[in-house]
Amino acid sequence: MTKLRTAFYSGSFDPITNGHMDVMRSALIAFDRVVVGIGVHAAKKGLFAFDERKALIEECLAESGLESSRVSIVSFDKLAVDAAQQAEAQVIVRGLRDTDDFAFEMQMAGMNSTMRPDLPTIFMPASAATRPISATLVKQIAAMGGDVSPFVPAPVAKALANAQ
Predict the structure, then answer these.
(1) Is the pLDDT reported for residue 4 higher than 70?
(2) What pTM was estimated for this model as a whole?
């Protein structure tokens, strides 16, 4: 019996951006299943609650034509390596936009590999079109009344407009 290859893709996804969707698309090409881990921490107040973020991701998946049946969405409030292990993932997927991301992600991957040597981190580079996008900048643009539609899927643009 062939073992199902599962990737754990973690982040705040507050909100999910075109860059996140780009990484998810790549992960679905490389792996049989992707578990999206939405980090939730009582001390950090996000713009959207977990249930809203989950619903937005589901809407974006449906709209994108990606195989949503191969994606599951979970919340976690512990170490990503522990959440990945709980999700029975064989790898952690991380997106890279630039050299700043690379430096930070390499440090995190090194720490994670010390804690869980059997759980490698795989980097997925962002496409040229999505490299400048960050959820933080998207929220700032939306808060100032700017058009975020070039940076996020349509369901997210609508949710951000309603949140203001």
Answers:
(1) no
(2) 0.93
